[in-house]
Write a structure and sequence with these properties.
The chain is an alpha/beta fold and about 280 residues long. Helices cover about 40% and strands about 15% of the residues. It folds into 2 domains: about 120 residues, Alanine racemase (TIM Barrel, Alpha-Beta Barrel); about 130 residues, TIM Barrel (Alpha-Beta Barrel), CATH 3.20.20.10. α2 links the parallel β1 and β2. This is Pyridoxal phosphate homeostasis protein.
Length: about 280
């Protein structure tokens, strides 16, 4: 068990009204920032989805973000998904919302009914022995970084009679502390993953370089966009759905949007600083 889970009840549904207002205001500020960055780059803001990164946040906090308009949430750890999912499913249902697999995945892609569903992603690393913890709930695993993991997820998905979306994580920054496949291996790997039964390759994901150099951060995002375009242009089996670019977080989402991001993963700007790591 992750240590902080011993000190915080992640399934807690109660929320102080003032905390709810803080989260609502955070969501609205981020949505405004997304719209502004989209306008600056000549893009339609509807083509960019806000994913609330909910690591260490309890059910009450997450529901405040959903009530404020968030329709895509992402957890870092399978243990947290397991701790929160049932309460989130219940509370979403009370609001007429589907969540994750329970929502048939509709909230995972732009559609006329997207406002009625909340997509549920795993955005952190996944160990093979935790696959069964996440598959009943998540619509997309963003952190697939190799063929072995993809094959294991595919087998579990097929045995469960379903298909799961995946994003290939690419380490565009080259930083050793970050996970993801090497950029030079990404296209071949993506095509191999796209051909696996039980998986739908929905796009690519990266974490921006942890530097103050705007040019370097943008270069990583632009390269990921070029990889996505090359995968689509390849015409290989299963690659037609590879359209998402999950890139950009609280500190660099403006650059990411201008470089083509379709999903920005934001935690701090919505919920504030985390009390736990």
């Amino acid at each position: 068990m992750v240590a902080y889970m011993e000190h915080k009840d992640l399934a807690n549904e109660r929320l102080d009204p003032s905390r709810g207002i803080e989260i609502r205001d955070g969501v609205h500020r981020v949505m405004d920032a997304v719209a502004s960055a989209a306008a600056d780059s000549g893009r339609n803001p509807d083509d960019i989805r806000l994913l609330a990164a909910t690591k260490t946040r309890d059910v009450g906090e997450i529901m405040a973000a959903i009530d404020a308009g968030v329709r895509l949430i992402g957890e870092n750890r399978p243990q947290e998904i397991e701790a929160k999912a049932e309460a989130l499913l219940k509370l979403c249902a009370q609001r007429g919302l589907g969540l994750g697999v329970g929502g048939n995945g509709v909230g995972d892609v732009p559609s006329a009914r997207a406002s009625e569903h909340v997509g549920f992603h795993l955005i952190g690393q996944l160990q093979s022995n935790k696959i069964n913890k996440v598959l009943p709930f998540v619509t997309t695993i963003e952190s697939v970084d190799g063929l072995r993991l993809a094959e294991r997820v595919a087998r579990r998905a097929v045995s469960g009679g379903r298909s799961v979306g995946v994003l290939l994580e690419v380490n565009e920054s080259g930083e050793e502390s970050k996970s993801g496949c090497a950029p030079e291996e990404a296209q071949e790997l993506a095509c191999s993953i796209a051909d696996l039964e039980g998986l739908e390759l929905r796009g690519l994901m990266t974490i921006g370089a942890h530097v103050d150099d705007e040019g370097r951060i943008r270069a990583g995002f632009a390269h990921l966009r070029g990889l996505r375009d090359a995968i689509l242009a390849s015409g290989e089996a299963g690659t037609a759905s590879c359209r998402e670019l999950s890139m950009g977080m609280t500190h660099d989402m403006g650059y990411a949007i201008e470089e083509g991001s379709t999903i920005v993963r934001v935690g701090t700007a919505i919920f504030g600083e985390r009390a736990f790591i």
